[in-house]
Amino acid sequence: MIPRLAFSEQTSRLFRDYLNVLAAQGFSGELHHDFGTRLVTATDNSIYQITPQAVVYPRNAEDIQRALRLATEPRFQDIKITPRGGGTGTNGQSLSAGIILDCSRHLNRILDVNVEEGWVRVQPGVVLDQLNDQLAPLGVFFAPNLSPSSRATLGGMINTDACGKGSRIYGRTSDHVLALTCILSDGAKLDVEPWEAEALAQVKSRDGLAGSALRVVDEIVTEKAEVIERVFPKLSRFLTGYNLAKVYGNDDGCFNLNYLLAGSEGTLAVITEAKLRLTPLPRHKELLVVKYESFDDALTAAELLVKSDPAAIETIDEKILELAKED
Ligand SMILES: Cc1cc2nc3c(=O)[nH]c(=O)nc-3n(C[C@H](O)[C@H](O)[C@H](O)COP(=O)(O)OP(=O)(O)OC[C@H]3O[C@@H](n4cnc5c(N)ncnc54)[C@H](O)[C@@H]3O)c2cc1C
User: Which residue of 13, 25, 128, 266 lies most exposed, with the fewest beta carbons within 10 A?
Assistant: First the structure.
């Protein structure tokens, strides 16, 4: 059963002080701590419910910088900030007892499209269907897919390294990320793209969290390369989490932090912009329905079916069919 919410009407003094200072420092988006707003963001698509103390809606990357930088001050060090997209995550990842940083309300613009070069630049709150509706007349699309595509945002997809139907041939979200702009927890902005040795040395020499974080990551993936290679599962869809194996694990030999940020569930940085790879729309689509006597027969046949290289094979058992008939 879904846990009951603790009804605490009042946002605590600490959080109200934080919001007041943030407003005074020029935060241009919205800052809410009314109970209605907090209640709405107390749920996502998981079985959990947690009421946040406040919800902030940044209007631009500078707002996110202001919010994170202020939270580094000793007086506000107990404040936790959690980014949120469409709230379709199923594990409670966008819930927080602290502050929700909602990237979906204002940061939802498609910034630039270049079909010849095969990329699009988006803000994190762009919803997948919104993006693909805009791209369709150009004959291209963003290939990673999931069923809540009418609500899930690109920021959320990147941070869960989402993939659904079609991942057999198109891969995961991280396979389609070309560059990311993000804000680190100290408020510093970091532009991330695959770096060759010289460029990496330059970013590693940066002051502050950006430089030190990159030095640590490079040290881990270099020194622990053998363990990472041995223990990381070889799954085409991988898992959500820190994908250390892919930081250097690509054909170009570059250091690619995008793979670590993708799937990091907002724990490493807040994404403010993404440059994503476009894929030509398939010219033809075919749906084939095959009926089997038993579920085991269907599973056994998958091996044969996969040889024809379909985008996806979905298995539907009698239970789902019966439920669908009653719907
Ligand atoms: C019916 C259903 C089917 C689903 N099917 C699939 C599926 O097939 N494949 C799949 O992969 N997932 C699936 N999901 C899970 C979910 O839809 C995905 O994880 C989706 O990518 C989440 O996007 P969102 O915008 O809703 O993110 P949210 O749920 O709001 O957030 C997800 C995570 O991303 C972080 N985040 C959001 N925005 C940012 C940002 N700008 N910067 C940093 N971190 C950020 C949040 O903190 C959180 O950790 C499904 C969910 C449902 C309800």
Answer: 13
Does 263 sit in the ligand 1 pocket, CB within 6 Å?
A: no
Q: Can you tell me which residue has the tokens 């990320």?
A: 177
Q: Do domains 13-102 and 110-280 have the same CATH topology?
A: no
Q: Give the tens place of pLDDT for each residue, 102-160.
A: 999 999 999 999 999 999 999 999 999 999 999 999 999 999 999 999 999 999 999 99
Q: Is 273 in the pocket of ligand 1 (CB under 6 A)?
A: no
Burial of 322 (0-12, 13-18, 19+ CB in 10 A): exposed
Q: Which CATH class is domain 13-102?
A: alpha beta
Pocket test for ligand 1, best of 91, 103, 159, 270 (most atoms within 8 A of CB): 159
| Complex prediction ipTM | 0.98
Q: Which residues make Cβ contacts (< 8 Å) with residue 321, sequence separation at least 6?
A: none
- In CATH, what number does 110-280 get? 3.30.465.10
